[in-house]
Amino acid sequence: MAVPYQPQGLAVIVLDSIPMLFLHPKTKKITTPLLGKKFMCRFPSGQLYFDSKLDLDTDGSTFHSQDGTGQGETSTKNPDGTSLDADQINYFVLPKNFFQQFKIQKGDIGVVINGIRKVYACFGDVGPPTHLGEGSIALHRELGHETIKNWTSMGGGKLINEGISSDVITIVFPGSGNGFGRTNKECAQIGEPLFQKLMLEAQSIGDFPASRMRAYA
User: Is 132 helix (H, G, I), strand (E, B) or coil?
Assistant: First the structure.
C-alpha cells in the first residue's frame, strides 16, 4: 500500500492545522503529470496546494542575461506596464494552460514554505506547460537560498543558477490579486489573513465523522 502524502520537515510547524484538509471529503487530488511535482490538490474553498521543487526564474531582472533561458519580461506586469523584477519581487511561476482551470489569475497571491520559512508572493510568470515549481530570485532569497554571489542592492553580482530540489510547498489563493504584480509588502498584507483563514477552516475538519475522512496515497 502506498504511503499517504504528508509534508516533510519543519514545514509541518508552519502549516499548523492545514494538513487536516487532506482528509476533507471535498479536497480533490490533482493527478496532472508535471515535472517537479510531488503532490498537488485543491482544497474545498478552492486554494491550490502543491509540493514541488523550486527552480530559479530570473525573468525581468538584470540577471536574466546570465541565465540561458532568462527573459527580459514577465508574463504578469506592474500597473504601469513594466515587468516584475525577479531580483526584487517575490513571485512564483505556474504552468502555461494549467492555472486557468483553478480560477487563478496573474497577480494572485500565494504563500511559499520551505522548512520553517514562510514567504508571501504573487503569481508573476507563466512557465512551460509540463513543469511545476519555479520562483524568482527574491523569493529564493527570502526562503534562505541566495542565488547571487556578491549580491548588492544595486543589482550587481554573479548568478548561481541553482534552485531548491524538493519539498517546497506553495498554496495559491484564487481571486486574491488584481491582475498586476504586487510589492512584497502587499503580498504579505493580503496573504497572511488568507493563510490564517485557511488554518481556521482546517481546524473545522473535526466536525466531519471519521467515516467521511480520507488520506491521499
Answer: coil
Residue written as grid cell 490533482: 30
Q: How many residues does the chain have?
A: 217
Q: Measured between alpha carbons, how far is 16 from 50 in angstroms, rounded to an integer?
A: 16
- The mean predicted confidence, pLDDT, of the chain is 92
What share of the chain has pLDDT > 90, as a percent? 85
d(CA 46, CA 103): 8
What span, in angstroms and rounded, lies between the C-alpha atoms of 150 and 27?
Answer: 44
What is this structure's pTM? 0.93
**Which of 114, 116, 121, 135 is closest to 194 using CA atoms?**
121
Q: Is 24 left (phi over 0), alpha (psi -120 to 50) or beta?
A: beta
- Given a contact cutoff of 8 angstroms between Cβ atoms, the answer to whether 80 and 130 are in contact is no
3-state DSSP call for residue 47?
coil
Whole-Å CA distances, 193 to 11, 140, 171, 173 = 19, 23, 13, 11
